[in-house]
């Protein structure tokens, strides 16, 4: 079971698109970023009672952050059943709106659990599918008809740029962990170090300044750090080290 991170219902500061590029990646966790996103979307939809973020890695789905126990438990029930709006959205990359759990027949087990909890509405919107991220933001509300189709593009607009931040945080966590035998983490470390070395040589920077520049370019171009580093190394005519 994923860790539940609860918080209030209104995000601090400005809009999500303005805040995400300012996050210090090395100080974030997937949970902290996901919680920021869930809180923001919950605030965008006043009818929402609870929100969460589902992340798929391989075949495993987990709720990495939730603004309340309700969203976490409704998500987990779907994972156990193997189907439901949040799980199907994360898998397919398509949004799902459940307007009334009393009459919607697409997910019988979820609808029954939602009725039992008095939570009749659910909206699940995918995080844009970029950089290998498969995720969905899920919002639950008590009354039927709490969400409408027009809410889908409104929420989707708030999720632009989320994938690159999640990917960068995951990459950084992999690099810090540096687990033996994790080929992708080791290759990421090597190519990022190569790119840092090129920037240090070109600009006379230290390692921290070079990594900060990689993060800035990553945020500015919506490109994950690993891919950006590989591009810099390739442009310099250097073979990537693996």
From TrEMBL:
Gene3D superfamilies: 3.30.450.40, Winged helix-like DNA-binding domain superfamily/Winged helix DNA-binding domain
Start and end residues of each ANTAR domain: 172-233
Pfam families: ANTAR, GAF_2
Listed SMART domains: ANTAR
Protein keywords: Kinase, Transcription, Transcription regulation, Transferase
GO MF entries: kinase activity; RNA binding
Coiled coil: none
Protein's recorded name: GAF domain-containing protein
Organism of derivation: Klenkia brasiliensis
């Amino acid at each position: 079971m994923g860790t539940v991170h609860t918080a209030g219902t209104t995000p601090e500061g400005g809009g999500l698109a303005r805040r995400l590029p300012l996050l210090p990646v090395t100080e974030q966790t997937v949970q902290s970023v996901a919680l920021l996103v869930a809180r923001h979307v919950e605030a965008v939809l006043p009818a929402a009672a609870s929100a969460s973020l589902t992340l798929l890695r391989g075949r495993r789905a987990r709720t990495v952050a939730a603004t309340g126990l309700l969203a976490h438990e409704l998500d987990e029930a779907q994972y156990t059943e193997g189907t439901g709006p949040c799980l199907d959205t994360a898998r397919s990359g398509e949004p799902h709106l459940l307007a009334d759990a009393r009459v919607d027949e697409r997910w019988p087990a979820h609808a029954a659990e939602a009725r039992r909890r008095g939570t009749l509405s659910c909206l699940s919107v995918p995080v844009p599918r970029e950089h290998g991220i498969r995720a969905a933001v899920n919002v639950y509300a008590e009354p039927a008809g709490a969400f409408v189709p027009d809410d889908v593009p409104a929420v989707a607009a708030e999720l632009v740029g989320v994938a690159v931040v999640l990917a960068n945080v995951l990459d950084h966590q992999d690099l810090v962990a540096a687990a033996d035998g994790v080929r992708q983490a080791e290759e990421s470390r090597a190519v990022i170090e190569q790119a840092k070395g090129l920037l240090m040589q070109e600009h006379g920077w230290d390692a921290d300044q070079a990594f900060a520049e990689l993060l800035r370019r990553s945020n500015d171009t919506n490109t994950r750090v690993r891919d950006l580093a590989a591009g810099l190394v390739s442009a310099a005519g250097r073979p990537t080290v693996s």
